Amino acid sequence: MIRKARLDDISRIAEILVFVKRIKFRPIFQNDDYSFGELQVLRVAEKYKSPDILDNIWVYDDGIVKGLIHIEGNEIVELYVDYFFQNQGVGSALIEYAKENYPVTFLWAIEKNVEAIRFYERHDFHITKNKKFEEGTTEYLVKLERDY
Q1: How far apart are CA 98 and CA 91, in angstroms?
Q2: Which of 1, 70, 101, 134 shows a CA-CA span of 20 to 30 A to 92?
Q3: What is the layout of strands, in order, in the sheet containing 125-133?
Q4: SS3 category, 70
Q5: Three-class SS string for 111-138?
Q6: Spatial CA neighbour of 82 closest among 3, 1, 24
């Protein structure tokens, strides 16, 4: 079931974000100071306690919170699925929920994260010519827009 995130989900949300970012992004950014220094569960949990962020997050919960989607306006800001539950339809359920219930039209993805880009393309998003640097890095983000 997909539901609005609650305050008691914060530790699970932080856990998912930290571990998926380490697994997926460390090989791209190769920044151990960030991956194992700044990127800590308690720090992330503190950030996500903010009602401004939490109010825009939905979780996939079938007894265990397995993934999350963060939507602001017409942008999918984040979509993460716990590593242990990937390729089980969790991400697909979250993105389809967003498309059916919110006016989502675009998102940004790390250009080198080809697995994520392929996922978004399977869900009717396509890469545009718009690119920007991920803040504080030399890696590009690419904008994907939704096909209708």
Answers
A1: 11
A2: 134
A3: 2-4, 57-61, 65-72, 75-81, 106-110, 140-146, 125-133
A4: strand
A5: CCCHHHHHHHHHCCEEEEEEEEECCCCC
A6: 24
